Amino acid sequence: MIVAFSVTPLGVGEDVGEYVADAVRVVRESGLPNRTDAMFTSIEGEWDEVMDVVKRAVAVVEERAPRVSVVLKADIRPGVTDGMTSKVETVERHLSA
């Protein structure tokens, strides 16, 4: 499965990059395939391991912020591995045709 999620601390002012970096650090240290862009962090793996990482990423922000907003989207497709790469490659192939 692939999960794209964002964690936003609330009540800490406008500059939230430091808080978001804490969450992304948890994801990167998990060892699971992941990517971060301007809006979301995507992570790929089995349900329990991915959700555990998301939960820990939220918790690390929650330690320092009075409120946390989480947006999450999941692509649950059993038997697919390396979906983050293959989905993008498919689109790029169609664009170059």
From TrEMBL:
Lineage top rank: taxon: Bacteria
GO CC term (a single one): cytosol
Span of domain Thiamine-binding protein: 3-92
One Pfam entry name: Thiamine_BP
Family statement drawn from the similarity comment of this UniProt entry: Belongs to the UPF0045 family.
NCBIfam families cross-referenced by the UniProt entry: MTH1187 family thiamine-binding protein (TIGR00106)
Protein name per its UniProtKB record: UPF0045 protein
